[in-house]
Amino acid sequence: MGERDDPGVIGRRVQRLRVERGLTQRQLAEPVYTPAYISTLESGRVRPSDDALRHLADRLGVAFDELASGHSARLVTELRLRLTEAQRTLAVGETEAAAGQYAELLAEAETHGLAPERSAALLGLGECALETGELVAGRQYFERAEECLAGAPLPARVPALRGRAVAHYLAGELRYAVYLLETALDELNRGGLHDPDALLLLYASAIGPYMDMGAHARAAQAAEFALALAPQSGDPALVARMHRSVARTLVAEGRLAEADASLAKAAELYRGLQIRTELANCHWMRGYVYAQDGQLERAEEELREALGMLSAKRAALYSSQVAVELADVLHRRGRSDEAAALLHDVLGQLSPERGAVHAAAAHRLLGIIAEDARRTENAEEHYVRALSLLERAGAAGDLADLCRLLGDLLRRTGRVEAALDAYRTGLGHRTAPGTTTLGPAPAQPPL
Fold first, then answer.
1. Cα 416–418–419 angle (5° rounding)?
2. pLDDT tens, 333-367?
3. I want to staple 370 with a disulfide (CB 3.0 to 4.6 A). Which of 15, 259, 375, 394 is the partner?
């Protein structure tokens, strides 16, 4: 049921419709109410009950929602149908077309004062911006969507909150991204709000920043929870298409309430299609774990699976991040030329504001490959670039390791004082494996 206008607005609407239909106050009131009640209602001095509004809507020949809110039920249903169309467009990877659809829907929702549809359009525009790497615009869309949902329960706000966290993460603001995700997870789990889709989005989104901050134990646990929650979401594409088709026929038949219910199911399922990107994070994490364990063939398989899932959706930034991990595995398997070619491609898609940590990782690995080939100056250049990027992002664990690599290189080339400076810098960033300065882990879900 839509939001209801204030009594004065409703009263004027009732009076206008009554006059248009040539009814007296007595004719409108009978047989349940009195002319005096209608007069009081039309003057805005009384707030009509749902029963009174249903009686008046029936006598005036309009829908309850239209009388209560001024919005045509057909208009709202048709907007929701177009929202599911835009979600489908984004789900199949047609990001530019989806952004155009969402922009049109946002303008219409704002014109008609439809807050739920406005927030859905903003959320869609934010997701489109993430896919294309427009991080500032994406974060602003998500913030506006959260403002629209300010009074809604936390599970309803999770997609917008998660989107904002991912935008901060991709911009290199790791600690704040983790703060947003963990705060939401803790509130959901401690409050008993076991919403599988909301939890899956949050846990899968936390894996990347955890890994980049050196919190590998938390990343592994988040991946475990996400994979345990995934079967509860299922494969939604076929069912969503069915619900969307059914809604079209119901709208044509004037059965708007049933069409709305079908569209709500379709919209929920299309949102679930974004989980493909999130599950790719889990394959990425598995690939990382296998690589750390020396199981390089299995690591390559998992990382290629993640890269294929992400490339299928044209998720450029995510694809670049996984490609760096894959390049490391290829280098360790003796395929350094293939790894270097992959890394140079990746660096064209990353920048300090868009994927700083993985741009640094690409430079680090290129430096190692250059050292192996005895190209010392080239190696040093890559290490220095990586150091600058990591200092900006605050990735302490990676900084310590990089300072060691740079110090060793400087020492081997006879620059002992410079090497000592690099080692001291690294010691200042040294952390124990698997730890960060994060607070306690969030409460666990009741799996």
1. 60
2. 999 999 999 999 888 877 666 677 778 889 999 99
3. 375
Residues whose CB falls within 8 Å of the CB of residue 232, separated by 6 or more in sequence, listed in order? 196, 200
CA angle 36, 44, 1 (to 5 degrees): 110
Name residues of the chain where pLDDT drops below 70. Answer: 1-5, 70-73, 92-93, 227, 230-231, 233-256, 259-260, 262-264, 266-279, 281, 311-317, 351-354, 393-397, 428-439, 447
Dihedral over alpha carbons 307, 311, 317, 319 (to 10 degrees): 10
Place of tokens 């298409």: 241
Residue 99 is predicted with a pLDDT of 94
Instruction: Output the pTM of the full model.
Output: 0.63
Tell me, yes or no, whether 52 lies in a domain: yes
How far apart (Å, rounded) are the C-alpha atoms in residues 180 and 183?
A: 5
- Sequence-distant (≥ 6) Cβ neighbours of residue 329 within 8 angstroms: 287, 291, 296, 299, 300, 303
In tens, the pLDDT along 355-405 reads 777 788 899 999 999 999 999 999 999 999 988 888 776 666 677 788 888
> Quick check: 87 and 271 in contact, CB under 8 A?
yes
Task: Tell me if 316 is assigned to some domain.
Answer: no
- Residue 45 maps to which CATH number? 1.10.260.40
